[in-house]
């Protein structure tokens, strides 16, 4: 093996297998996380509940039927899982600019994972963006946007994209998608590279219409982690 091949193998990557699992190389850490909710059911922050032991190479289920979630156990073949991996384009082309004062907030509904950090029982980002001349409101908007796992919401300050510094990691969100952070390269089943971003969410329920990205379909599909059943 050449030095370049060894170096390439050490770089964490995710490859989408046609009608099959997500093949993870390079050993990025794998976690389970869940939102911490208020007494009113509002998500407030993220709690890490487990670091899952892995090898340098592993497969993650995306058909939703594995008995060993988040890992693939080959069930996709038994259930004839078919994945039309149609996610294309760049965030800037798909997103809508919501505006703001001292900040410019953008939103791409096509990749929203419906994690719920963008609002509470009193208000939400879409309302608050009109009041961002107040720095306390602006700070709350920033905090909400930075907790968005999919990156559907983003913001710019002085025309520059600002992102939280996130580690190379993959997180299985309880009863939700795979949250990929740290600019890990994701290659779709047709060989094209999904736009590399600091945070994206990948479907693991099998129901997204925007595979391999999550579009929030897991909630309506009633997706549940088998380990929590």
What does this structure look like?
The protein is an alpha+beta fold and 229 residues long. The protein has one domain. The protein has helices at 3-10, 75-78, 91-94, 125-128, 135-146, 217-221, and strands at 13-16, 22-25, 30-37, 43-52, 57-60, 96-99, 104-107, 153-157, 160-162, 169-173, 178-181, 185-187, 199-202. The strands form three sheets. It has a five-stranded mixed beta sheet with strand order 4-3-10-11-13, with no helix packed on it. A four-stranded mixed beta sheet has the order 5-2-1-12, with no helix packed on it. Strands 6-7-8-9 form a four-stranded antiparallel beta sheet. A hairpin with a 2-residue loop joins β8 and β9 (160-162). The radius of gyration is 18 Å and the shape is globular. The protein starts with a helix and ends in an 8-residue tail after the last helix. Residues 1-7 have low confidence and may be disordered.
A few lines on this structure:
This protein is an alpha+beta fold and 229 residues long. It has helices spanning 3-10, 75-78, 91-94, 125-128, 135-146, 217-221; strands spanning 13-16, 22-25, 30-37, 43-52, 57-60, 96-99, 104-107, 153-157, 160-162, 169-173, 178-181, 185-187, 199-202.
Based on the model shown, name its key terms:
alpha+beta; five-stranded mixed β-sheet; four-stranded mixed β-sheet; 6 helices; 13 strands; globular; disordered N terminus
């Amino acid at each position: 093996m050449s030095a370049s091949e060894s170096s390439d193998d050490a770089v964490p990557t995710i490859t989408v297998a046609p009608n099959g699992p997500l093949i993870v190389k390079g050993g990025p850490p794998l976690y389970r996380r869940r939102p911490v909710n208020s007494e009113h059911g509002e998500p407030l922050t993220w709690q890490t509940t487990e670091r899952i032991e892995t090898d340098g190479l592993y497969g993650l289920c995306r058909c939703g039927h594995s008995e060993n979630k988040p890992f693939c156990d080959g069930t996709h073949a038994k259930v004839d899982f078919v994945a039309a991996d149609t996610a294309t384009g760049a965030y800037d082309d798909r997103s809508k600019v919501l505006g703001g004062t001292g900040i410019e907030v953008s939103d791409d509904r096509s990749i929203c994972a419906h994690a719920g950090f963008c609002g509470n029982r009193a208000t939400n980002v879409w309302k608050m963006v009109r009041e961002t001349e107040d720095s306390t409101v602006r700070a709350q908007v920033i905090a909400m946007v930075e907790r968005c796992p999919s990156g559907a919401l983003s913001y710019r300050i002085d025309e520059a994209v600002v992102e939280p510094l996130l580690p190379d990691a993959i997180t299985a969100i309880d009863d939700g998608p795979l949250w990929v952070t740290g600019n890990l390269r994701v290659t779709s089943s047709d060989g094209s590279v999904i736009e590399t971003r600091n945070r994206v969410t990948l479907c693991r329920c099998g129901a997204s219409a925007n595979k391999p990205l999550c579009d929030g379909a897991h909630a309506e599909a009633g997706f549940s982690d088998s380990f929590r059943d």
